[in-house]
Structure formats: C-alpha cells, structure tokens
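User: ok so my PI wants both of these folded by tonight, can you help

Assistant: No problem, let's get them done. Here's the first:
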Amino acid sequence: METAGGNSVSREGGRGGRSVYGRAEMRRERIETDQAFFAERMQKRVLGGRRSLSRARALAPHLGVDLDAWRAHPEAVISVVGSKGKGTAATFASAALAATGLRVGTLTSPGLRSNRERIRVDGQAIPRRDYEALVGEVAATLTRVSDLLPDDGYLSPSGLFTLSALRHFAGRGCDAVVLEAGMGGASDEVSLVAPGVVVVTPILSEHVGVLGDTVAEIAAEKAGVVTAATRDVVAAIQEEPGVETAVLLAARRHGCRYHRVGGDAERPGRDPAPGLGALNARLGVVAALRLLDLAGLPAPPPEALDASLQSVSLPGRLSHHRRGNQDWVIDCATNPAAITAAISYTTATVGPPTAVLTFLPHHRDAAPLLEALRDWPVVRIPGGRSTGGPGGGAVMRLEEVDLDALGPRVLAVGPVYFVGELLAILDVDCERSFTTSHR
C-alpha cells in the first residue's frame, strides 16, 4: 500500500521479537558476491592505507567505463554532496528528470535491504541477475588487473559501486545520471566525472580529522566536485558557520551560478516529502530543472512533474507502515534536529508515539540524542562491539526486544543499518523509488 505522500505501507503480523527477527533475516536479501567490493578496504585500511582515486581511475577502462566520455557531457550529470539528505535529493532529482521522458540512472548509498538499491534506472533497483553478473565481472576484472593498478591505496567500496553504476547506466542507455557522493567530495570517486549541476545538502560537523579539521574545511572538500564544466550549484541554506562561504567560493572559482534553497525559495509546488526531507526534495527538483536548462531541454509539464514526485517512495525517511495493529514511523534520524522532526511528524500523523525504538552505537555520543528523546518512552536496542558488524563494528541484538510490547504507535529512529533491519522485519518493498510513465 502507499500513503498519500508516496511512502510505502507494509503489513506484517508476527508475534514476538525473536521469531519476527528470525523471519526477517530469512527474507532479507544477502548477495555475498559483492563482498569483493569491500575486500581491499578491509585488507589495506588496517595497514594504514587510504582510498585511492588514481587506482579507481586506472581501473575504469578495464571495466569498459570511459571516464573521458562521461566528463565530456556535464549536461547529463548531477552530483550530490553533503552530510544529510543526499539520497532524498538524488531521488527527487531523478524523478523530476524522468518526468520529461528521459531514462535516468541513479547512484545512492547505502542500500537498506540490498546493495542492489544503490544502482537504479528509472527508479528501479538493478535486477538481481544483472547485479550478480555485473559484480562478478567487476570482481574478476579486479583480480586480473589488480597488480597493474597504482599501489597508492585501496579501492573503496563506494568507488567500485560508482564504476559499476556508470557501466550499468551506459549499458542501459541512460540519458542522464544522478550520482550521490559517499563520505566526501573531491576525495570521492564521483569526482571522476564532471557534473553540469552540483547539489549541496546541509553539511554538518562530521568526519572531522578525515575530510578536514573544521566544518568549513569539510564543506570545501565536499564542494571539490565542482569543476570548470559545472554550470549550476544548488545549495541548501547552511546553519554551520563557514559552510556556505566555502561552497560559495567553490562556485565562484569556477564561474557557476549559485542557487540558495531554503524555506519557500524556489518551492516546486507542494512539498513532496515530509519533515526535514522537504528541503532536500526541493534541492533535487531545482537541480533537475537546472540540468534540463543546461541541456537545452524543456521542463516537464506541471502535471507530469507532480505525478512523478508524488510517486516517490523513500522507506526509512519518515515512512509510515503497519505491523498488525501497530502504526510504525521509521526514520534514519541520527541527530537531535532530525529526531525532534521525526517526533513532530509522528505525533501529527499517527499520534504521540507509545514507544521510541532506537539503536545507539558505541561510537556515537548518545547524550544529545537521548536529550532530544527525554520526554518520550525510549526503548534502546541492546548491542555490543564486534569486528565486521554493521556500523563500524556495532552489533544489534534486536531479537531481545518484544516488538508487540511497544504499543500501538512506534517511532523508530537510528542509523541506516538499524533502519534496514526494521524494514526487513516489516517486509517493506525497497525495490522502486519512483514510477515513470515510460517504463
């Protein structure tokens, strides 16, 4: 089923935490072949290695990926950088482009129930058979040519997904692509192509000491995807000091038009996404319209645009689901502002939550998150430390929670991998992010 906002609603009966969790694990798709994408990082990071763009660039032609051809057509590329909301912006940009009849490839990360969700054409995740064949070919190629590539670091998983996506998009004849960066910008493999339009979602103080020593330095690194071929930078109004200045400087350095989006600025009609996602949705739509203008193509008819945007389904982004007699709202909220927005949305749509289910990994500062939840009945998922688990080694013991005891209205907030487990339990369809009339 679907709500009016396009968020999927699933119905899952189930009794008891452990039995439901076991069934979800049986349902959850786990394709082991893509573990080859993570192997170099696992092996070389422990030795102090860093991700290598030169290694990824050298691998591209062996995979049949012509980076020069991609860089020659910036009018077909949108790149999305930022800290929060990148997937939402990328999805809405893709839906807006598809409303014109273009075939659109979308790269996002991470997947919720499957890594296939990272690579989509016209909103549909790459089919399992195609994905397994693609991953197998990439893994075999890497094994064959690894010793021929620069030995200055490792191929990051996100880099291998980026190259795989570019190959798939070319093979499917995509007219335009929307590429979500991973952690950074200039250091991310999406910087190997030249975007005509760059989207900058809100940038927060994260990855300090990795991308930069200050949030302004982090913003400058993320804005490093802007090139001389970039025509437009579409950026959210930033709250962190120094962020907007850093992004604006990058745009001016390359002579780009700068579009500041926030509040009611350039609103594409009614907000197609709830809560904090509304801003990122607007960023995506504005970016799509800018790319169409750059390509000399007309904007989609208003009714076609509205239909495409209203079809967007973003499980785990304030998505509403039914489990037996329970209403669930699930959101990838991991900061106080997002948690507060999720509580407000839940209260306004299904009523005050009878339980707030969350998982707080050891590497996060739990105090500000718990402060945002101080007035609500919080149920924390037990967990511990491990090597090789999700979220940098965090292990969730979700089976120890009786989901039936959470009451009729459950708000679940936490990291993506936690949300992915819950979506598997509720058997939520994550295969299609939007629908198109030309499929």
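One down. Here's the second:
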Amino acid sequence: MSLIERLVVQIVIANLGLWVAVKLPISGVEFSGSLQQLFLAGSILGLINFFIKPALKAVTLPIRILTFGLFSLVINMGMVWTIDIMFEELVIKGLGPLFWTTVIIWLFSLLVSFSAKDR
C-alpha cells in the first residue's frame, strides 16, 4: 500500500470511528456540530494518527515494552482527547467515554488492517 493510500485509509478510519462513536449511545459523548465539522474533526484525527502517532510510538517504545503495549491505548486516547480539545462541538466528558470512543476507532482500524492483509 502506498503512502497516500495509507493516509487516506487513516482518514477514513478516523472519520468512521468518530461518526460511530458519536452515533452510539455512549454516555458522555456528544457532538453538536454539522456533518462537515464531524468530517473535519475525523480528518484531522486521521492526519494526527498518520503523522504524529508514529513519532510518539517511537519515543515511548520503552514504556510500551514495559506495559506490554498497553501504553499504546494511552497514546490513542491522547489523540482523541486532542480532537476533543480542538473542536468545541465535540464533547467527551470523562475518561470512560474517552476510552470507549478510542476503542471504537481502534476497532475500525483493526477491521481495516485485517481486510487489507487479505488483499
């Protein structure tokens, strides 16, 4: 898969995951903006995941090894929290809703990575 294809896939995953997280009845996750604003938030999340997340994963490698990879969840939650801070239309109240929103986006990423390996 080329670099551009991986970037587009990251953006699509972030958009779908964020949209599903907003649509599911997760207590503490609300979005009051338009669909375009949600698409923009998801696109920025995809860009952050594509450009910044690899650097964070490299820097935190010792911590991720010590925690058997669980620190990756903290990194992912930080990415979603960044989007929550950047967009006032998106409100995620507390760690529980932030955790479940992150898990939903991660599940979409997992499904896409499994389907990409089949190709």
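The beta strands are 29-31, 90-92. Residues 3-113 form one domain. Good luck tonight!
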